[in-house]
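Before we proceed, please read the two lines closing this message. Tell me what the token row says about the fold.
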Amino acid sequence: MRISAEQVREFCRDQIAHYKIPRYVCCVDSFPMTVTGKIQKYLLREQMSRELGLLEEPHA
């Protein structure tokens, strides 16, 4: 079963506040994982920034 980005946003409209609805929704087949099975969020962030053409903001 596949779900579209619009279906995710529509579901969120009925469940959460409007400002919490995700701006970007990407469906992926797999996540970058560590050897212990945790998602490598920094790699996921970098990958999505490249795909969406977003500039990375410096963190404090």
Observations:
- The chain has one domain: 5-52.
- The chain has a mean pLDDT of 89.
- The domain at 5-52 is CATH 3.30.300.30 (GMP Synthetase; Chain A, domain 3).
- The chain is about 40% helix and 0% strand.
